[in-house]
C-alpha cells in the first residue's frame, strides 16, 4: 500500500473529530438536527485549522443515505465516495485556478440539473477569495436564489478579500487557531498509529512550531519522524534542524547574567559553528527571553513557556527580575530588526550578546526614582544620623558647580565621607534652622525645603554674576541687574531689589528673557519679580490718609535723569565750563 501522509491519514471524518472548533461543529450539528440547512456557507480562518475538512463532513452529513444527519454512517456508498473524493454530486473547485467568469458561468449552467443519486448537489470552492470581481458578480444571483437541492460551501484564509455582497448571502463561520494542548493530543495519537516513541519535550516543540495549524504540525511531525529512527527526541531535532536548544540557550544566558562577556561570546561562537544560523539563534533567544519574562511574572504553564519548566536554568531565573528581562527582550527585538540592514548580521548578534552581559548593572527607572526619592527625603529631612553632614557637602558641591568649579572637585565633595564635618557652618546652620521649622510645621514641608535648603544651595552672588554675563549683549538690562542690591528666593519667585524704579521697569519689560536665563542657570523654575526701593518704602509706610499733606517733602522723588543716563551708559558728566573751554569753543 502506498505511503499516506499523516495530514491526509488523520483528516477528521466526523464533527467529533474536529479539533479546537467546538463552536463550529456544535452549530452545524444543531442546524442539521433541526432541518435548518442554509443554501450557502462561508468558512474563514487560518490555514490548516479544518475548513475544507468541515465542508466535506457537512457534505457527508447532508448526503448520507440515513440523513441528513449530524452523525453520518461513513459506510454507505455516498459517504465512502465523498471520503474518496469521487462523488459526482459533491464538486470541489480550486478558486485559485478557476478565477475567471467563464468558470462561474459553467457552474450556473450545472445548477439547473438535479443531483444524480444524492439529496443535494454540493459545490465546495476552496480559496474563494481568489475569484475575480466579475466571477463574484456572476455568482451573486445564483447564491441568493439557488434551486432547493443546491448547497454552496466556500472556504477562505483571507476573509477581507471576499466582497460584502457574498458574505451577506452566506452563513459565516470563523475558525480559530487550534490550542497547543489539542495539537499535542493529535500528535501523540499520530505517533501511536506509526508506533513511534516521542519524548514530551519533542512533542511540545512540534506543537509550538505549528502555531495553531494542525496540518503544519502533522507535516513537521512527518519530517522529524523520517530521521528519528523510531524515537523522536529533542536532541535529535536540535541536531538535525540546526536549533539552539533550551539547555545551550540557558547556559549562554547564565553567562550573560553573570557578566562574563568572554565566556558568552566564546559560547556563542561554538553554537554558531555547530550549524545554527544567526537568524535562528535570534529567534530562539527571543523565545527564551519571553519565557523568562513569563516565569518572572509567576506563569509556569508549559503551553505558554513552550518548554518544560525544569529546562530553564535556575541560576538565570533567580538572578534576574521582570524589569531586566523586559530590557533584555527589547534588546533582542532591536537586534532582529537591525540585522536586516546590517553590514554583517553576526557582528550585530555579538554586539547584542555583549550588551546582555551588562544586564545585571541595568537600573530600572522605577527603582532609580525610588532611590533618588529616598535619598532626597533622608538628606533634606535629616532623618538619619549622617544626613546633616551629607546634606551640607551635597549642597556645597552643587553651589560650587554653579560657580564653575571643576566637575572632579564637585564629585569629590559629593562623595565625602558621611562622618566628616561640614566645611561651611553657614549652610549647615541654614539646614538645621529649616529642620526645626519643618518639625514645628510639618504641613509646610515642601515650601520650607524650597525656600530654605534650595536657597542655601543657590549662591545668589554667583547667580547674579552669571545672569549679568549671560545678558551682556542687552546693555541696559544687564546694567539694571548689575546695580540691583538684594536677590532672594521666595517659593518659585526670585525677588530682585533694583536700585530705582527705572531699573525695575527695565527688568519687568524683559522679564521673560530674564526668567528663562535664570531658570537655566539655577536649574529650577523661577519667576522674576523686580522691586524698586520706592515701592518698598510705600508698603512700609502704609496707605496715606486723607489728612496727610500731599506736599510732604519726605519723599526723595525720582532719581536724577542725568545720573540714570550716566549709570546706564557707564559715562560721566561733562561740565559746561569744560565744554566752553574746548578748542574752537570761542
General description of the model:
- Helix content is 56%, strand content 8%.
- By secondary structure, the protein is of the alpha/beta class.
- The strands form 3 sheets. Strands 2-3-4-1-5 form a 5-stranded parallel sheet, with helices on one face.
Largest sheet: 5 strands, parallel
Instruction: Give average pLDDT, whole number.
Output: 78
- Weakly predicted, low-confidence segments: 401-411, 413-431, 441-456, 543-558, 578-586
Number of helices: 30
Radius of gyration: 43 Å
Helix proportion: 55-70%
- Percent in strands: 5-15%
Q: Strands of the largest sheet, in order across it?
A: 2-3-4-1-5
Count of extended strands: 10
For the terminal residues, how far apart are their CA atoms? Answer: 137 Å
Describe the oligomeric state of these chains in a short phrase.
Answer: single chain
Q: What would you call the shape?
A: elongated
Helix/strand-derived class? alpha/beta
Offer a quick outline of the entry.
The protein has 30 helices and ten strands. With about 575 residues, the protein is α/β, with parallel strands linked by helices. The longest helix has 19 residues.
